[in-house]
């Protein structure tokens, strides 16, 4: 875990029980690019010293502000639920129908299971999706995260 000097990141990016280290590495690189903090909710589908994770994050990983937590409850105790946006294909609201703000929490589910039904139901008013044709079941996690992170940054005026 690296702690950066900036007091508050512009965004918090949460990966809920991610399965694929390459996606986490790529999302970590995006977080470095925009100054976001990456949160990983265990269990993870890989080890944190996985070579694929490091390779995908390349030499940026040492600059990443990140933290792994043991449960959703621990994450919720540390981040404001009223600032959370859950990305899921089951949402009815598109990502550009909301106004992102600095400090928002963007939550992405695992590649194989997505977010749990109980979480999506409890926070249904905070669920968002990207538009896609019915022939496509889902998009790659890293692609989705990049799209949403940069849309949020664009909405609130770019990087400091």
SSE topology:
Blueprint lengths: L10 E6 L4 H14 L2 E5 L9 H7 L7 E5 L2 H7 L5 E4 L16 E5 L8 H6 L4 E2 L12 H15 L5
Helix pairs in contact: 1-2, 1-5
Walkthrough of the structure:
The longest helix has 15 residues, at 141-155. 35% of the residues are buried. This protein has a six-stranded parallel beta sheet. Helix 1 (21-34) packs parallel to helix 2 and helix 1 (21-34) runs parallel beside helix 5. It is globular and about 35 Å long. Helix 2 links the parallel strand 2 and strand 3 (65-69). The chain has helices spanning 21-34, 51-57, 72-78, 117-122, 141-155, and strands at 11-16, 37-41, 65-69, 84-87, 104-108, 127-128. The mean pLDDT is 90. 31% of the residues lie in helices and 17% in strands. It has one domain (11-155): 3-Layer(aba) Sandwich (Alpha/beta knot). It is of the alpha/beta class. Keywords: Cytoplasm, Methyltransferase, S-adenosyl-L-methionine, Transferase, tRNA processing. Residues 11-150 form the tRNA/rRNA methyltransferase SpoU type domain. It comes from Maioricimonas rarisocia.
Could you name the CATH topology?
Alpha/beta knot
Q: Class in CATH?
A: Alpha Beta
Calculate Rg over CA atoms: 15 Å
Please state roughly what percent of the residues sit in beta strands, choosing from under 5%, 5-15%, 15-25%, 25-35%, 35-45% or over 45%.
Answer: 15-25%
Strand order of the largest sheet: 3-2-1-5-4-6
What number of domains? 1
Overall mean pLDDT: 90
Oligomer designation: single chain
Question: Which architecture would the CATH scheme give at its second level?
Answer: 3-Layer(aba) Sandwich
Broad shape: globular
H/E element order: EHEHEHEEHEH
Helix/strand class: alpha/beta
Q: Could you list the spans in which at least 5 consecutive residues all have pLDDT below 50?
A: none
**Cα end-to-end separation:** 23 Å
- Proportion of residues in helical segments: 25-40%
Tally of separate helices: 5
Per DSSP E runs of 2 or more residues, the count of β-strands stands at 6
CATH superfamily: SPOUT methyltransferase, trefoil knot domain
Largest sheet: 6 strands, parallel
Function: Could methylate the ribose at the nucleotide 34 wobble position in tRNA.
Protein name: Putative tRNA (cytidine(34)-2'-O)-methyltransferase
Family: Belongs to the class IV-like SAM-binding methyltransferase superfamily. RNA methyltransferase TrmH family. TrmL subfamily.
Enzyme class: transferase
């Amino acid at each position: 875990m690296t702690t950066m000097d900036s007091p508050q990141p512009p965004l918090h990016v949460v990966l809920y029980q991610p399965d694929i280290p390459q996606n986490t590495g790529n999302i970590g690189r995006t977080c470095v690019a925009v100054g976001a903090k990456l949160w990983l909710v265990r269990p993870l589908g890989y080890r944190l010293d996985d070579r694929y994770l490091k390779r995908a994050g390349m030499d940026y990983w040492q600059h990443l502000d990140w933290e792994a937590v043991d449960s959703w409850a621990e994450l919720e105790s540390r981040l404001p639920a009223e600032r959370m946006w859950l990305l899921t294909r089951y949402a009815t609201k598109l990502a550009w129908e909301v106004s992102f703000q600095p400090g928002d929490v963007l939550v992405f589910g695992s590649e194989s299971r997505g977010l749990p039904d109980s979480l999506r139901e409890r926070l249904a008013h905070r669920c968002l999706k990207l538009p896609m044709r019915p022939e496509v079941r889902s998009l790659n996690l890293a692609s989705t995260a990049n799209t949403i992170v940069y849309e949020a940054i664009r909405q609130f005026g770019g990087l400091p």
